[in-house]
Specification:
By secondary structure, the chain is an alpha/beta fold. It has a domain at 33-47 and 86-237: 3-Layer(aba) Sandwich (Rossmann fold), CATH 3.40.50.300. Helix content is 36%, strand content 23%. The chain has helices at 47-54, 77-83, 100-110, 115-128, 144-156, 174-186, 198-204, 222-227, 229-234, 245-249, and strands spanning 8-16, 22-31, 36-40, 62-67, 70-71, 84-87, 162-166, 190-194, 207-212, 215-221. The strands form 2 sheets. The chain has a 6-stranded mixed β-sheet, sandwiched between helices. Strand 4 and strand 5 form a beta hairpin. Helix 3 (100-110) packs parallel to helix 5 (144-156). It is globular.
Length: 253
């Protein structure tokens, strides 16, 4: 029997920016199909740089990445970008068309889908994020939370295998954050969530990986990772005031 390939397999990924600043240092990790994994760590640790490799925005310098067994290389870039959907921290970086409908249809149109197929993808993706009522609105007139949901819809319209989200709750009010958390929990696909929002990591992701100085320094069940106060302090991570690590470590009754 053939085993199912990992959704994401990163091996010895090393990367430096043109100014010589080394960001990733032989980083390795794997993600199983359907897993929701939080990527935690201080600013500058290499989390976003890793994410930008996963759909080929940054070119590999050393090491390898496979998505569902397909190696990321120049020949496979279009297929990788269809399979790995990236939701950027600032939704305005993702929304650039006059209407929500056109934004969500943009990716499917580039895949060569017919107008009817594009319309179906738009309806399906906006339904999934509970934003079908926004279909004819101008994206820049939406609230922060609404924009974030539409940005996710633009990615879902491509039928990705993996969803990568960079600080998805950044700038959202508590209600928008709750809506987004509920949405992400409802999506049945592999997710990598880069976040400083540790309660979100606990709620959404059974597994957490801490990246620091370009390497994986911790990888385990989220309650255990967040209950290790020394580990968090060593990598500039902090739970909200009053959020008890001891309580986190206890399984729910």
């Amino acid at each position: 029997m053939h085993s199912t390939p990992e959704s994401v397999a990163v091996e010895d990924l090393t990367f430096s920016y043109p100014n010589g600043h080394a960001v990733l240092d032989q980083l390795s990790m794997t993600v199983k199909p359907g897993e929701k994994v939080a990527l935690l760590g201080p600013n500058g640790a290499g989390k976003t740089t890793l994410a930008l490799h996963l759909n080929g925005v940054l070119e590999l310098q050393a090491g390898s990445i496979k998505v569902n067994g397909i190696p990321i290389n120049e020949d496979n870039l279009s297929e990788i970008r269809r399979r790995v959907g990236m939701v950027f921290q600032n939704a305005d970086d993702q929304l650039f068309m006059p209407t929500v409908r056109e934004d969500v249809a943009f990716g499917p149109a580039n895949l060569g889908l017919t107008k009817e197929q594009q319309a179906e993808r738009v309806r399906e993706a906006l339904d999934a994020v509970d934003a079908i009522d926004f279909v004819d609105r101008t994206p820049h007139h939406l609230s922060g939370g609404e924009k974030r949901r539409v940005a996710i819809a633009t990615v879902l319209a491509m039928h990705p295998d993996v969803l990568v989200l960079d600080e998805p709750t950044s700038g959202l009010d508590p209600f928008g954050r709750r809506e987004l958390a509920n949405l992400l929990k409802s999506l049945d696909l592999t997710q990598l969530v880069i976040t400083h929002d540790l309660p979100l990591a606990l709620e959404l992701c059974p597994r957490s990986v801490i990246i620091s100085n370009g390497r994986v320094v911790a990888d385990g069940p989220t309650p255990e990772v967040l209950a290790d106060s020394q580990l968090l302090a060593a990598h500039r991570l902090e739970l909200p005031y009053g959020f008890s690590p001891a309580a986190i470590a206890q399984p729910e009754p």
